[in-house]
Write a structure and sequence with these properties.
The protein has about 230 residues and is α+β, with helices and mostly antiparallel strands. Helices cover about 30% and strands about 30% of the residues. The strands form two sheets. It has a six-stranded antiparallel sheet, with helices on one face. Bound molecules: zinc ion. Zinc ion binds next to helix 2.
Length: about 230
């Protein structure tokens, strides 16, 4: 999905109540076509003055603007996590709090809190642009579940190694999943997908699957053991 202003506004309200006790003040929302970020909190800085008009030395953040890039068509979950990511920045800046770095100790502790309490998957790295993904040729192991949904649509979920069996089991319990097949691949194309701790299905086309799974090997399950089969035919 590509978010609209009203979608961002609605999510901002919702997450503000849910995760920030409704403490965040409204701010302007803007859409952009930026390639360098998915979300951004723009702000101004000024020196703080004491009551007597003397410089206190501190810096104050003000004039916040919430920007979301609509360049990439992303899964709704990723859009929502991006909104939350920016809300954490906004929370820290608007409370004039200092962190150890852009995504420092404070940011991480709030992020981890929200991820745990509300089952989110907010990350500290802003997710990358399509061009950056194409440049990523690092070979990593991917445990890929390819699912066929009711209605024939295809999707994939890349499992974190430690969650392979539990995600494998979950696919059997979801009525909307007609079929699931597992593969092992080192194709860097799949670097762009997050490692899932629980089943999350990302839509993918049949063409891309055929093309990108050429060197993949099927995974076969025997009880709690996983065996790597011969290459895919
Ligand atoms: Zn950030």
């Amino acid at each position: 999905m590509r978010p609209t202003i009203s979608y961002i506004q609605q999510k901002f309200e919702e997450f503000n109540q849910l995760c920030f006790e409704g403490k965040l003040l409204p701010l302007p929302f803007k859409l952009s076509r930026a390639r360098t970020y998915l979300g951004q909190i723009a702000y101004k800085r000024r020196r703080k003055f004491s009551l007597l008009g003397l410089r206190s030395g501190g810096v104050e953040y003000y004039d916040f603007v919430f920007r979301i890039s609509t360049l990439l068509d992303l899964p709704k979950e990723e859009v929502d996590d991006t909104i939350l990511h920016e809300m954490i920045h906004y929370y820290i800046l608007s409370n004039q709090q200092k962190d150890t770095s852009t995504h420092g100790k404070l940011f991480r502790s709030i992020m981890n809190d929200i991820n745990t309490k509300f089952g989110r998957h907010i990350t500290i790295s802003h997710r990358r642009t399509k061009e950056e993904y194409e440049q990523d040729t690092c070979k990593r192991q991917h445990l890929i579940c390819v699912v066929e949904m009711e209605g024939g649509k295809r999707g994939i979920c890349i499992a974190a190694k430690t969650r392979l069996l539990s995600i494998w089991d979950t696919t059997k319990l979801v009525p909307a999943i007609r079929q699931a097949q597992w593969y092992l691949s080192h194709n860097p194309y799949f670097n762009r997908y997050p490692r899932c701790l629980s089943l999350k299905v990302y839509p993918i086309t049949e063409d891309i699957l055929q093309q990108q799974l050429q060197d993949a090997r099927p995974l076969i399950r025997q009880g709690s053991r996983i065996i790597v089969g011969r290459s895919v035919d």
